[in-house]
Write a structure and sequence with these properties.
By secondary structure, the chain is of the alpha+beta class. Strand 5 and strand 6 form a beta hairpin. The radius of gyration is 54 Å and the shape is rod-shaped. The strands form two sheets. Strands 2-3-1-4 form a four-stranded antiparallel sheet, covered by helices on one side. The protein has a two-stranded antiparallel sheet with strand order 5-6. 47% of the residues lie in helices and 11% in strands.
């Protein structure tokens, strides 16, 4: 085939090859510029890599292929080391606090036990000082002095008591819905225990005599040991258990003031 002609017989313009490709690229660039699609110098500069920029100064890689730059790995390792140190510090501090809490709980349990023992000792001392006391309930205290009413009731239950046998007799503050109680302190606690031991005989007092002595004749007389408030609360709980059928009976020891139960 003759030089300068193609298969169809037309002549091929000179300058084909690299020069022709550069010419076509320039034509495309001028055409894009006329259409308003020219690339700015700033955009072009952003697409070029500065050869003087170090590898460590490159921004973190945002590629989607899972690769990280050396700076990314270094930062992550430094952060992991810092978090590991913080975690170890917190674990050590937590262990120390647990030890302190165990010591505090042990000391608290010991103090609680001592307080309970002291409360029991105090209650025993208070009850010991009440061994000579006897409480009477449902006695009339309006017409006659209370000491005369106590002596008369003791006579009705076949126990001889005189004024010389008593240290003091006085009424106690009444609670809502209950008559005033009378507390009598005996010189000899055995005589007081004898009175309390004969209290069942109070059920045999005649109606006329009962009208003279009782604040409420429809009710019986109460003759009980003078117990502490703590033991009175315990007795109340025991009576509630008896009413529910959980216990068969409960009463107060007339010698010691202890709360006894029958299961």
């Amino acid at each position: 085939m003759p030089r300068g002609k193609n298969q169809r017989g037309t002549s091929t313009p000179r300058g084909t090859g690299r020069g022709n490709k550069q010419h076509v690229a320039d034509e495309d660039l001028r055409r894009s510029s006329r259409n308003g699609n020219s690339i700015s110098d700033q955009d072009a500069a952003q697409t070029q890599l500065n050869p003087q920029q170090s590898y460590q100064q490159l921004p973190p890689s945002n590629s989607n292929d899972g690769e990280f730059s050396q700076l990314d790995v270094s930062c992550l390792l430094a952060r992991v080391n810092r978090l590991s140190k913080d975690l170890k510090f917190l674990c050590d501090e937590n262990t120390q606090l647990k030890g302190e809490i165990i010591l505090i709980k042990s000391a608290l349990n010991s103090q609680t036990k001592k307080i309970s023992e002291l409360e029991i000792e105090l209650d025993d001392l208070q009850q010991y000082g009440r061994r000579e006391n006897v409480c009477f309930s449902n006695l009339k205290i309006d017409d006659k002095p209370v000491i005369d009413q106590v002596i008369s009731l003791c006579e009705e239950i076949n126990v001889t008591v005189t004024k010389n046998d008593l240290v003091d007799v006085h009424p106690l503050p009444s609670t809502r819905g209950h008559a005033k109680r009378i507390i009598a302190r005996f010189k000899d606690r055995k005589l007081g225990q004898q009175v309390m031991g004969a209290r069942k005989s109070a059920k045999n007092i005649g109606a006329n005599k009962k009208k003279q002595l009782a604040a409420d004749p429809s009710r019986g007389f109460g003759i009980q040991p003078n117990i502490t408030s703590k033991r009175a609360m315990l007795l109340k709980q025991a009576k509630a258990a008896v009413e529910k059928g959980q216990l068969n009976g409960t009463w107060v020891d007339i010698k010691t003031g202890a709360i006894l139960i029958r299961v």
